[in-house]
Structures are given as structure tokens and as C-alpha cells.
Amino acid sequence: MPQRHTTGKRSHGWMGIQRGHRARPLEWLAEKFIFAVSLSTILVVLLIFLFVAREAAPLLFGRMNSAAVQEVIPVGEFDKLSPAQLQQYLGLTPSELAAMDRATLQSLMEVKVEALNEIPAAFRGDPDAHLNTTQWRYLLGPHQWTDYAKPEFIWQPVGQIKKYNIIPLLVGSLKTTLVGLLFAVPLAVGAAIYVSQLARPRVREVVKPTIEMLSGIPSVVVGFFALLVMATVLQSLFGYQTRLNAFVAGIALGFAVIPVVFSIAEDALTSVPQAYTQAALALGSSRWQAAWQIVLPAALPGVFAATVLGFGRAIGETMIVLMVCSASVMSWNIFDSARSITTTIAAEMAEAVSGGPHYRILFLLGAMLFAVTFVLNLIGDVVMHRLKLRLEGKR
Amino acid sequence: MAESLLPKLTVAATARGDATSSGTPLIEINQLSLYYGAARALKAISLSVQERVVTAFIGPSGCGKSTLLRCVNRMNDLIDTVRIEGGIKIGGHDIYNADVDVIELRKRVGMVFQKSNPFPKSIYENVAYGLRLHGTTKKSEVDAVVEQSLRSAALWDEVKDRQHSSALGLSGGQQQRLCIARAIAIKPEIILMDEPASALDPIATARIEDLIMELKKDFTIIIVTHNMQQAARMSDFTAFFYLGELVEFDTTTKIFTNPAQKRTEDYVTGRFG
Prior knowledge:
The complex is a heterodimer of chains A (about 400) and B (about 270). Chain A is mainly alpha-helical and about 400 residues long. Chain A has helices spanning about 25-60, 85-90, 95-100, 100-120, 135-140, 165-200, 200-215, 220-240, 245-270, 275-280, 285-300, 300-315, 320-325, 340-350, 355-390, and strands at about 155, 165. Chain A contains 15 helices and two strands. A two-stranded antiparallel ribbon of chain A has the order 1-2. The radius of gyration of chain A is 30 Å and the shape is globular. The relative contact order of chain A is 0.10. The two termini of chain B are about 20 Å apart.
């Protein structure tokens, strides 16, 4: 098209129609703005993770020492130490070391000596007092502590010897979450099938908002209710010994999970084309058969997504478990108490010494929680995508 | 004006419809009126459909032909606001009687929809669904009926090697033939077709039409269509509807060559509609 450039400099493309941001500058601007905003959310998530992981980093690289009795260097030997040795001994970063003068460093060394002197002499002989309990083998493996009959997993961040085994917390989180999901997902999906496929319009108009309203109840109120009412009722029903346990916490968690799962599963079921239901009914199926055999399988990716989100809600829920039970017992029995990861972080962060082993381990737990939910969501997404492709006949 | 004329006309039409073929009619629609809330969508329709013939329902959009079709297998039951007066008898039984099992009715009266709607399952599962629903569970039996149905629907040769891949991977025409296979798998007596070829290209349409001519040997077929030529080519009887009334019902030859009503003539010659 030779005439293309003859209509003047301001025209672009065929027949001089202006295109791109010059033609519609406001739309262009709005588009870029929305893009920037959505990009920033990804950035914020990444930054949160980086921040949490950074606080836990010294632990990951084995730079923390939580032993109650540590070797001390007398202040008099200050001049014999190289800057590198000094930095490691005092647990400082190079910039912190550079910022401190000689007197400050010496007083820091003195604090170490004093701390050792404060430990009772009888206790200094205990082999446990010399252990660095922030090592991976103490964080993850069982250990036979002094006066214990066998190796055990113990989370006990206070006391003379700080025991930081995180396995009881993982078990606690999984226990409550699984009970919650096993309770909530069948109920929520069942309710979603009923509301989207079987209920009369008038019933639907009442039931749907009522269930979704559940998500508006603050979890502290749910926890309160579980602590006072549900715990008693469930104990009299099932007759177990510990009144406050992972089972009660799980059921209470279920109340937080139900609206999440219900809402998304209901959307997924409703968006299954009516044509499928019609075809099934025309073949002589009952409404129930059509819902169960045709609509539910077609909505499976959405129901699966709902379950994954429900898992995220359950494992991230703090308040309910904190209120109902919080003893860190190493037990898979759901009728024993449990202490979840989130509960531990919420309850202990305020009393952990900033920068200390306890503080770092709480951040490690946070980073782990983040990673677990991220990976699970990722797996969920992949599975969902595959299910969808298979349903659409593309695989 | 039309309303006062109508009963007389339809009675006459029914009488003629009976006269042109032998035996008692399979479907008898008697003074059927249908209301969506207060709106009357069908006005005292009466007509009879013979066994093993193709009957076409024609008329402009919104004339009630699809609504009438969906009365025959009671699909209108799913809409809460629908109310029905009059009755439909199939093989002498009133299908709106309280003791009629809708599931049994729909097993005897199959349906093919305007837009092909195979389930998001494999081709095999689509055809097998109805069988399993009605109690055939033995694998060899199901296999045999699936193959036979796919053959009857002229689809077997195209899909025999990929029966277990998703039905949604088929072309539009193939999907519609699969829906026909699914409908005939449970051996209904009557097949209702609601514009089965309206979303298809001419070649796929021709295949569906050939198929319907084949199926006529075993099934009684009622087909709703917008396509005048299609009705003329395929059907033995044609009913012309206008604004919820049955204007004329007669042999297809009569309707298309020498209609009794002016409105019918105007419509089939393309003067309105």
C-alpha cells in the first residue's frame, strides 16, 4: 500500500486509522495501571515470603546456638580474637560489628560470661545443657532428653533447656485440618449440590445466603462457641476423656471452612450447562441421579479447587484452634490435644526474644506454612487444569 | 377471530390425519393448553400422531412448537410456573395422570435437543449412561447395545477406534449423532427432536436427515424445524403453528402443495415467518 504514509505523520496503519495508545490514551493508561496493580500483588506476596524467610535464615544456615551452657571467652582475651572470630562468638553481622566500638564489644562479652554464671552449678553438668537444640536433628528428630525413658518429640520453648521439635506442631496442624476438612467438605459439597441442583428457588434464596453468612462470623466467636458449647456436647456424645482436643478444634474449624467450600463448589455446580441436566432427565434419570452422575463429575475441577481453598483456610486458621486446645502433644490420636503451627506463632511471638533462637524458629514455621500452602495450591491448580482438559476432551 | 375458528379447524385436521393412515394413533393430544404463569402459550391444541411416521412441527419463532414438543415427555414439568390443561395420551394412557412415572415416560419418549449436549464423558459412557440408568449393567450387553446404537446413528465407523475418548472432542455433527445414539440406546418408542440440525452445517444436516429417514422404520419421530425444505423432504405429516395455535395439520404433501389455510400458504411459501 504505497498511500499508507501519504496521509500525514499522525496516522498509523491502514487508511490512516489511529491505533495503539495514541488513539485511546485513557484506555491505554487504565490498562497499564491495572496491570501494575496486579503485578504489585504478586510482588507483595513475594516480599512477605522473603521477609519471613530472611528472619529464619540464620537458623537455616546453622548460625544459631541455643545451648544453655556455652563456652565463654574471658573479656581479657579480647585482643587475641580476630574480627571474624569475634563476629561469630557474639553472633553479629559484619556491619553490626563495624558499627560497635571496643567498649561495647567488651561489655557484650561480659554479658555472656554473666549469663553463664547465672546458670545453677548443678545444672551445668547436664549434657542437655550443652546441646544446640536449633540443629535440624533436634528440630525434626526425636531425642532422649535427661530423665526421659525414651526418645521423644517435644516442643517446649521455655525453661532451662529449650526444646524446639516442630513435629508435634506439624502433627497438630494436620490433625485439626484433616478433621475439619473431613467434616466440612462433604457437608459443604452436599449443601452445594442441594442448593444448586435440587432445591426450589425459594429454598435456595434462603439457604445460600445463610450458609455464606457463616463466613462473616469472626473466628474468635466460633472458637468461643466451640470452647463453651461444642466441647461439652461432643464429649457427651462421643465420651472421650480430654474435653478440649483436636476433634473439637477440627469440627469448629469446619464451620470456618464450610462457607468457603460451599460458595465455590456451588458456583462450579451452577455453571455446569443446564443442557447436561436436561439431557440426563430426558433419558429418564431422576433429578438426584442427574446431579450426582452428570453435574458433579462435570463440576469436579471446581469442587476440587473449593477443597484446596478450604484446606488453605483450615491450616491458616489461628484463633479457633488457639481457643479450643493448645497443648503440644505428640500424638496422632484426634481425641488428644493439639497445637497448630499458626497457634504457636500467634501465642509465642510476643514473648520470643527478637533475633533469638525461639524467634527465628517461629519465623521458620511461618515460612514453612507459607511454602506448604503455596505448593499445595500449585498442585491443586495443576490437578484442576488436568481434570478440566480431560472433561473438555483435549487430552 | 382465529380463536373462535380454531376448535372446528383442528377437529377437521385431526380427522383428516386419521383418515390418511391406518390404525389407531400412538400419540393423541387433546385440547392441550399451556400457561407460563398467566400467559397462555398453547391454545387448545388437538392432534394425533401415527406410529412410525415422521411428523414435523413448523411455524415462526415463539409459536409454541417446541413447548408442545416438550409436553410430550413432560420436560415442561421442570419449569415451576408452567400449568397445563387438557391431556396427552400415548398408547391410550394419559401421561399427565397422577399415577404416571415420569422416568418411565421419558424412557419411552426420547429427546434430542437443538444444541448437541453430550455429557463431558467418553463416547462410550455417553451411550451407556441411559442403559445403566435403566438397569443394564452387564458389560457384554452394554457393549453390544452401544455398538448397535452407534451403528444406527451412522457414527460407528467414525468413532469405533476412539470410543473411550471424550465426546466433546467430536465435531458438532458427530456430537448431534451421538446424542441421537444416546437417545435410541434405551429403545424408546417415540423420539422428539427439537431443531436437531439448526446448529449444523449443510453436510452434517444432510447426514442427520438421512439418519432420521432410517430411524423412521423403528421409531415414531416428531421433529421441530425452522427449515421448510427439511420438513418437506423428511416428514410424512406437518403441523403448522402460529402464536400458540395449531393452524393446520395434514399430510406434508397437502401442507406444502395445497394448504387449506391462507396463513399456512403464506408461511410455507415464505411470505412471512
